[in-house]
From TrEMBL:
Span of domain Nicotinate phosphoribosyltransferase C-terminal: 373-479
PTMs per UniProt: Transiently phosphorylated on a His residue during the reaction cycle. Phosphorylation strongly increases the affinity for substrates and increases the rate of nicotinate D-ribonucleotide production. Dephosphorylation regenerates the low-affinity form of the enzyme, leading to product release.
Pathway membership: Cofactor biosynthesis; NAD(+) biosynthesis; nicotinate D-ribonucleotide from nicotinate: step 1/1
GO molecular function, one term: nicotinate phosphoribosyltransferase activity
Source species: Echinicola jeungdonensis
Annotated Nicotinate phosphoribosyltransferase N-terminal domain residues: 14-144
The keyword Cell membrane is annotated on this UniProt entry: no
Protein name in UniProt: Nicotinate phosphoribosyltransferase
Catalytic activity, as annotated: 5-phospho-alpha-D-ribose 1-diphosphate + nicotinate + ATP + H2O = nicotinate beta-D-ribonucleotide + ADP + phosphate + diphosphate
InterPro entries named in the record: Aldolase_TIM, N/Namide_PRibTrfase, NAPRTase_C, NAPRTase_N, Nic_PRibTrfase-Fam, Nic_PRibTrfase_pncB, Nicotinate_pribotase-like_C
PANTHER family hit by this protein: NICOTINATE PHOSPHORIBOSYLTRANSFERASE
SUPFAM superfamilies: Nicotinate/Quinolinate PRTase C-terminal domain-like, Nicotinate/Quinolinate PRTase N-terminal domain-like
Amino acid sequence: MKITKDLYHGSLALLTDFYQLTMAYAYWKSGKADQQAVFNLFFRKNPFQSGFTVAAGLDYVIDFCRNFKFEENDLEYLQQMTQKDGTPTFEEGFIQYLRELKFSCDVDAVEEGTVIFPNTPMVRVRGPLLQCQLLETPLLNIINFQTLVATKASRISLEAKGDPVLEFGLRRAQGIDGALAASRASYIGGCSSTSNVMAGKLFGIPVSGTHAHSWIMAFDTELEAFEAYAEAFPDNCIFLVDTYDTLKGIQNAIKVGQSLKAKGKKMLGIRIDSGDLAYYSNVAREMLDEAGFPDAKVVASNDLDEHILSSLKMQEAAIDIWGIGTKLVTAYDQPALGAVYKMAAIKNEKGDWVPKLKVSQQAVKINIPGFQNVRRFYKNGKAMADMVYLENGEKLPDEITIIDPNDPTKRKKIQSGALESKVLLKSIFKEGEKVYTRPKLDEIREKTLTGLGRFDKAHKRLINPHIYPVGLEESLYHLRTDLVLKAKNYH
């Protein structure tokens, strides 16, 4: 299913900041609307103090770009805008330009599920300056949130160490859009299912769920509630046991499980949603085993995240399946990724590409100029370093030096001729036409899991992860330095 078509029914061209439109108008007014430019979308710091980030959101970007146009009701709204003196904000000629506008940019991006790092381009847009500018806000809106949640899901899944992780944060998510995007990104990051039925319909994510405390409270006794649920779902019984008393709840679940067994059915397990999860899960395991239910699963929930999960693992909690809601879909401990979208080059009147960069008093905020790509090198099957380089068609030398963009003393020599490597940016659109074949969501999820497997565990640990080497190819580093010095009039 196509996301935009199913969810939004129409143009999303006005899903942007007002200043993008005023800049677009000024570009048109000054004759620069169709001047060719290159922009890069990237982030400066891994979220959650993590050692890695997982890319997500490209599918939404594709739908946005494919459907990018200004419809008549969009243009009518813009025509009604006035300045302080009462004159129209936008001339009629500009409105007509937007009416005839057809998306014609090249878009290259890292594929969803790719493990990525700071200062490397996630999305590269090349095309008419006005169009590139209008893509900034929606692309950041899409990529920022979904990448954040996919990364959170990956961290949780890594700490689960192979146990299934169920995402059920719909009720706590930031609105309908946030809930659907979060369910999809969570699945990309490694979750095995969602409680969000609409996400299941739209994206093909497996859906799962048990019952709430209200189900128990609707009956005179807990045992009666379990019996009624077993009658309705004899092949899918996971009983929530902590409504009144967890230990008695486990006993009641066992009673109903024995009745199911007598009928040739099987109790799948129990869920604990409160209290000391380590203690109660171990007691539950003992009780279930003694009662003849060694295959019954213990599901745990209750405001879990990767840190609590890690602690419960260290306590040897007998938990088989993890239900994660609020802290996953809201990216609870970091509400935004902080990705940015910066111009990297512009074509002058002579037809030459001129590299561009923003200078800042903070070194981390000085962007990387030029038409860039990213290459990842592997040694003995493990990722060893990422290189940001200028894509100019030149063959890579056998020995490369990469330099940390924020600390020139951090350098790494790479014998590229003897190593496996791959380019991370893939062509998505050429002159506005989609050239990329979208993978299925299951394939994206598998890409995440496989990709993470190619990184040393030191980069994936929860606390103080080892920093993965990412650097600028030496000539790009020197170009950037020279442009900074020039901008500061140092030479």
